[in-house]
Batch of 2 targets.
Target 1
Amino acid sequence: MNDCLPSQTPLWQQVESAIRATVSSFGYSEIRTPIVESTDLFKRSIGEVTDIVEKEMYSFDDRNGDSLTLRPEGTASTVRAGIEHGLLYNQEQRLWYMGPMFRHERPQKGRYRQFHQFGVEVYGLAGPDIDAEVILLSAALWDKLGLRDHVTLELNSLGSNEARAQYREVLIAYLEQHIDKLDEDAKRRLYSNPLRILDSKNPQVQEVVANAPRLHDHLDEESQAHFEALKALLDSVGIGYRVNERLVRGLDYYNRTVFEWVTDSLGAQGTVCAGGRYDGLVEQLGGKATQGVGFGLGLERLVLLVEALGTQAPAAVDAYLCPMGEAAERQAFVLAQQLRQQLPGLRLMCHCGGGNFKKQLKRADKSGARWALILGDDELAQDQITIKNLKDGSQATVAMGELAAHLEQR
Ligand code: ATP
Ligand code: MG
C-alpha cells in the first residue's frame, strides 16, 4: 500500500480531472459506496473459484462476528447499492465511481495491495449500442490523456449463459483427454471454472488450449448478432480492436461482450482497463433481472503510462510573493488576499518567515512558480511592484493598481 507524495499528486489530479471531464461529457452520474462490504457479497458475485476470492481478499470478523471484506472491485458494491435503493429495476442508470480497492497480491510495478479504480456501470440496457458507448467512453479518456496510440483494444464475446454452459461441457470433455498436461491451477479449475484455463499463462497448458474446441463455434445466434453489431459501431467511430477468443476475464459474472485495453509499456501488468456485460449479476444478487455492462480501470497503471510518456506534472504555484521588510510583509498579506479574490484561477503563494532577498527568491524558485512578485521598500514607497519572470530572468516594475491586469494577461 502506497503513500501518494506531493511530488506525485499533481499527476494523479491531472488523471482524475480527465476522468471527471470524460464521464461528464457522456452524462454519467457518480455513485459512492462504502469501502467495506459483507464478505458474502463478493463471494456470490465474483465467484468462489477466482483469484480474487480464493487468494486476494482482505477479510476480517468485526466485533459482532460478521465477516467483512475491504472491497476488491467496484461492480459488486454498485449492484448491491442499486438493489438496496431501488435504482435498477425497470430503470436505466449510467453510473461511475472512483476510489481505493484492496487485494492481497504480490506487490510489483503496476500491482499493489491498495490500488485505485475508476469504473463505469450501466444498467437496464441490453443492446450492443451501450457496449459500444462504454468502450467509446474509455477511448475518449485515452484521447484526453494523449494515450490513444499506446493502448489497444481486445474484444471477445462469451455468448449467452446457456451457450457458455454448453461450451463448458464440450471444453471439459476435451481437457479431460489432456489432463496429464494440465498444471495444478488448471486441474483445480477443470470442473469449477474451465473457461479460465483458456487464458492460462503456462506454455504447456497453452499448447493444449491451442487445439481446444472454439468458443465462437458455440455462440448462440443472438450473441453473434450482438457481437457483429458492436464491431460495426466501433468501426463507425474509428476504434480499432483485435478479436481475442481466449479473452475470458477472471470474474465469473460476464456474458456476451468482454474487453480489455492493453499496453506494451508496463511490462507484465499490461491490462489497463477491463470490462464487459454482466446481465445475470443483478438477479444473482437478489434483484430483479436487469442487464449490466461496465468496466474497471486501474489508476496506478494509468498514472504510470502518463508518466512513461514524459508528461510533466504541472507546478502547484503560478506566482510567489516576496515581501522585503516588515512594512512590505504587512502589505503583502493583504495584497495576496486581494489578488486571490480578483483572479480566482491564480495560484499564489505568499512567502512566510522573513529572510533576505536571496533566500526568498530561492524559495520562489523551489515552489515552481513562473513569477516572483517582489515588494521592497522602493516599490512600497512608489506604490509599485516588481514582476520577475523566473523562467527567463526578465523583470518589469508596474504600478500596484495594474498588477492584477498584468498577471491576468500573462
Ligand atoms: P490482472 O490480470 O492484471 O490481475 P484483473 O483481471 O485482476 O487484472 P480486474 O479485476 O479486471 O483486473 O481489474 C480492472 C483493472 O484494475 C485492471 O485492468 C488493472 O488495471 C487494475 N488492477 C487490478 N488489480 C490491481 C492491482 N493489484 N494493483 C493495481 N491495479 C490493479
Ligand atoms: Mg488480478
Note: Residues 73, 103, 105, 110-112, 115, 117, 250, 269, 271-274, 296-298, 300-301 surround adenosine-5'-triphosphate (ligand 1) (CB under 6 Å).
Target 2
Amino acid sequence: MTRTVYVNGDYLPEDQAKVSIFDRGFLFADGVYEVTSVLGGKLIDFAGHVRRLHRSLDELQMASPVTEDELLAIHRELVRLNDIDEGLIYLQITRGAADRDFVYPKDATPTIVLFTQSKPGLADAPMAKVGLKVLSIEDQRWGRRDIKTVQLLYPSMGKMMAKAAGCDDAWMVEDGHVTEGTSNNAYIVKGNTIVTRHLGHEILSGITRTAVLRFAREAQMVVEERPFSIDEAKAADEAFITSASAFVMPVVELDGQAIGTGKPGSMTARLREIYLDEMRKAAV
Ligand code: PDD
C-alpha cells in the first residue's frame, strides 16, 4: 500500500508530495514538529502534543496554518487512509517558502506536512523486556531545547556515536549533569524516588514525561525534578527514558556499566504498564 501523506491541504501519495526548495524548514531549520503515537487506531495524548506545538510556534512567532479541530481531523484521516493500528504520526510546520534571508519573511505561508509510520507491536516492543544500553556524550545542541524544532542533526550524530560504541542511544551531559536522551527524557530511580532533570531551556518538556510523573506521584512514588550526574546514574537502582515513540523504556547499562541488576527494573515496568493502560483509556 502506498503511504498517503498530508501537505498544505492535500492528501497525496508520498511520491507526489512536494515542498519548495526555498522552504525555510530546508534552508534554516525554521520549523517545529510533533510526534504523536497511535495505539488501537487512536491518538495518545493528542491534547498535550497540540499544547506544546502552539508553545513552540509562539516562541518562534509563527502562526499555525490550521485550527486545533482541523489538526485532529487530519491526524484521524491519516490514521484511516493508512490503516494504522499502532504507529506514529509526524507533524511538521515550517515558516514556509521565501527568498533566502535571515530576517523572518512578512508574507510567507506556513508549510504543514504530516506523515505516518506504521509500527505493529509498538506497545509490546521486545526492547521493553531487555532494556537499552546508553552512552554518555557531551550535549552540543543549541540553547533553546525547550522548543521542538526540526534541527535534529546533533541528536542524529549522538545516535550514531551510540551505535558506533555498540549502544542503543545516548544521554547528553552538560556541566556534569544529564540533560536528556537524543530523542527522549532521562530518569534514574533510587529506592522509591525517581529523579529527572527539571524543566528549563536545557531540555524538551516531554508530553510523556508530564503524564508519567503524574502517574508516578499518584502511585505514591517520590519524584525529584533536579539535575543528576553520570556517577549518580551508575549508582542508581534503575533507569529509564520516556518519549511518545518509546513510552517508558528501561535503561540497563550506562557507559558499559550495569545499572542495578542489569535487568529492567520493577518501578520502570510498573510505570510502563500504568502509562499504557491509562493512555489507551484516554486515547482519541
Ligand atoms: N522525540 N527530548 C527530546 C530531545 C525529544 O526529541 C523528545 C521526543 C522527548 C520526549 O518528548 P515526548 O514525550 O513529548 O515524545 C524529549 C520524538 C519522539 C522524536 O523526535 O521522534
Note: The pocket of N-(5'-phosphopyridoxyl)-D-alanine is lined by residues 35, 180, 183-185, 204, 206-209, 242-245 (CB under 6 Å).
